[in-house]
Amino acid sequence: MTAQNATGNLALPVRIRRLLLLGLLLLLAVAASLTIGSSGLGLSALQGADEERRALLAVIVDLRLPRALAALAVGALLALAGCLQQLLLRNPLADPYILGTSGGASVGALLALWLGAGALLVNLAAGLGALTSIVVVFALAGRDHSTTQARLLLTGVAVAAFCGAVSSLLLSLAPDGLLRGMVFWLLGDLAGAGWQSAALALAGVLGLALWLAPALNILGMGLQHSYSLGLSVHTLRWIVYGLAALATAAAVTTAGMIGFVGLIVPHALRLWLGQDLRVLLPAAALGGGLVLLLADLLARTALAPQQLPVGAVMGLMGVPVFLWLLQQRAGRAC
Predict the structure, then answer these.
(1) Contacts with 146 (C-beta within 8 Å, 6 or more apart), sequence order
(2) Is 4 in a helix, a strand, or coil?
(3) At CA 291, angle to CA 183 and CA 158, rounded to 5?
């Protein structure tokens, strides 16, 4: 019996094994994140004096574990948002960063910070900014999304550039006391990031998306097929808009602007696992967490003891992949 069925998708046992392998790689990345860091304290400290062991335990519990959990949750949220947006656009180049969703969340959060709002209002402002940017992109691109994929992508790029300009304006007007924190947050940073709210948002987004996965699989087949099967396309799209906005806002308010996770991870996993969202959605969550954990590990150790912004590291990794994807799409179009 072959590993593929008549539709060209991988057989379910093969996909489950690959999903388990992805989970194992994630556990190994978490272990590496807990044992390796800029402080130089590693497992060798367990063989040292009591003071060294206590210091290692404190570093792991107070610093490395919360940061690893935050990276896992943020990476998973960004990958899920990218997966949902790629489904809506039916375009593997869709991504919260490229389409301006992250930029909209950033503008909302920066504006709330600039006005001196508390944490709850910052989160609400980020969510409203993300949802607004999604609505603007789809409104400007036109109503017939099945024939405006290129226009959607270009509109998203324009909205992202506009959000970047507004963010720069807010930074230029910010008082000196807020400026450094806003700039470093804008670059993407997991130092001191709280993971609880991001984990809660991840559970909600992933749970609802998995519940909707059969309907989303039908939506991915095209509008005509969806309407013929009686799918409420308009309602389902708005739910997906909201889920993508919530995931992006939770990620941005936790760790700032981190790009390309939502672009690289869903696209790669789709090639590896197939199109079935019942498998692809949890795989995207695992893969996003894995990629951001590895990027954060590199950010903490590349120039140790100095730590780099994880958003900048992710950008250096993501831009070449994005350009390669553009070349691949251009080659297929010829």
Answers:
(1) 90, 222, 223
(2) strand
(3) 50
Residues of the chain with pLDDT under 70: 1-10, 12, 38-53, 55-56, 141-150, 325-326, 328-334
**Whole-structure pTM value:** 0.84
What domains does the chain contain, in order, with CATH numbers?
67-328 (1.10.3470.10)
Give strand pairing partners of 303. 306
pLDDT the model gives residue 50:
63
Question: What does residue 12 show for φ and ψ, rounded to 5 degrees?
Answer: -60, -45
| Residues 293, 36: Cα–Cα separation, whole Å | 12
DSSP 252: H
Cβ neighbourhood burial of 296 (10 Å; 0-12, 13-18, 19+): buried
Predicted local confidence at residue 41, as pLDDT: 55
- 3-state secondary structure string across 57-111: HHHHHHHHHHHHHHHHHHHHHHHHHHHHHHHHHCCCCCCCCCCCHHHHHHHHHHH
Residue 68 CB neighbour total at 10 angstroms? 24
User: What local confidence, expressed as pLDDT, does residue 264 receive?
Assistant: 87
Q: Give the pair of three-digit tokens for residue 318.
A: 């993501």
Q: Which residues of 47-62 are buried (b: 16+ CB within 10 A; e: fewer)?
A: eeeeeeeeebeebbee
Other beta carbons within 10 angstroms of residue 198's beta carbon come to 25
Q: How far is 289 from 65, CA to CA, in rounded Å? A: 14
Token pair 């990476």 in the structure block, residue: 75
CB 138 within 8 A of CB 145: yes
Provide the pLDDT for residue 147: 47
